[in-house]
Amino acid sequence: MAKGKSRALLGTEGRLDLTTPNGWYPDPQQPGVLRYWDGQRWTGHTSETGATPAAPASSPDSTSDDGGAIPFFGARKRAEELRQTNAQLRAQLEKLERVNAEQRAVIERVGALSLIEVEAETERLRVELAQLRTDKADIERRISDEQQQLVEVQGQRELQDVGLYEYHHPAESSVDLRTKLDRVRSKIKDAVREKLAIHAATGFHFNNSAAQGRKFVNEMSRIMLRAYNAEAENCVKTVKAGNLPTAEARIAKAKDQIEKQGRMIDLRVTDYYHQLRVRELELAAEFHIRVQEEKELERERKAELREQRKAEQELKAERERLERQLAKEQAHYSNVKAMLEANGDLDGIRRLEDKLADVQRAIDDVDYRAANIRAGFVYVISNVGSFGPNMVKIGLTRRLEPFDRVRELGDASVPFRFDVHTLFFADDAVTVETKLHQAFAARRVNKVNLRREFFYATPEEVLEVLKSTVGEVVQYTAHPEAEEYRLSQGAPDVTL
């Protein structure tokens, strides 16, 4: 209706007629007639277009009170009601005057524009309105995001009030363990939020007040849970691969101390929550154990590569030596053969040829061992002085001189040298070693690092398995000499 009234006021030149008094507008039902608008509704006052309308008489609805005369009884109450009604009417009148002033300001601003300019201004306002709606939607979205963040911050603050902070856990560096850790941490947070982390009395009174008793119990519960969580976090940060039992005892002691100090109000950390924190501790220790195992395996792999390089270097040096010897023997054979034939010394010629053949066989053997990585020497050794009579080491070496490997194993890391029970060459030494390891797998000393090839077994037991694996064993010493150990046992005590 406001749009129709604005157009009805436009003159023949596209300008507004601003001489009409306030409140008089063209009647939408009767062309050429002005009707009075009191701010809420059309009244019955009309005037011809072009004439100056007279001020309309006051509406009976707004000037008189339906209450009539003031009663004798309750006059004060009735007067107060009339004053309130009068104040409300004045407020409505002021509001209508403000709306009327705003409308006249718009009319005056638009009246100075042509019809095309009005349409352009309308389009601009439409675009501005669309932008405002977009901005409003964006602001509402941002408010929603901020409210969500506020909820999260409030939840995080509740956890921090009881000492549950976000900190770096060692298991976060492992893909497998991180999934388990996330589940445990989620259960820990849920237990705190759902009041399942700590138990306390519910009917405790303080100074004969149940409210003060509840307040005291809640504060003590929060303080004790905060202390327990701090101890659990410290245990996680300090646990290592070998001290998990110590860390578990430490956190269990914290739980017991809280229970003793809170006995008056039956205050204690629940077993469910304690098991969750212990599981978190175990994941940290498990990560350190895995790291230690990986480091140990890496050291073993490097040692194996060094052993392999030594074997390759020894085989290469031996082949070069044999080639030089073969060349020397061939030159000697060429020089001596004619002389031996002239003298008729066929045995000498045969001895030279056998010697050349031996050198060539040695070269072929070196080439075979260099080409066949499964070939090598299998050994069974023990160290009574270091490990006792019921432990042996079963391994293999591809070294040209296998006893060099045994001597290296008996270096300064053990107090006595190893005794060799057997050491023999096999074309498939890897398979022989694997079968021996499988036979004594249940008696392996180190069940984590399988490269530690020590077994709880006697040399006689290994001999029986070896016979069933490779057949007849040419040389095997069942009883170790342990010379250094036995001499040390019989030597006089020279300690001070």
UniProtKB/TrEMBL annotation:
According to the record, the residues making up region (Disordered) are 1-70
In this chain the Bacteriophage T5 Orf172 DNA-binding domain maps to 386-469
Cited Pfam families: DUF2510 (PF10708), MUG113 (PF13455), SNIPE (PF13250)
Q: Where is the composition biased (Low complexity)?
A: 49-69
Recite the UniProt keywords alphabetically. Answer: Coiled coil
- Coiled-coil residue spans: 79-156, 288-369
The protein here is known as Chromosome segregation ATPase [Actinosynnema mirum DSM]
Organism taxonomic ancestry: Bacteria, Bacillati, Actinomycetota, Actinomycetes, Mycobacteriales
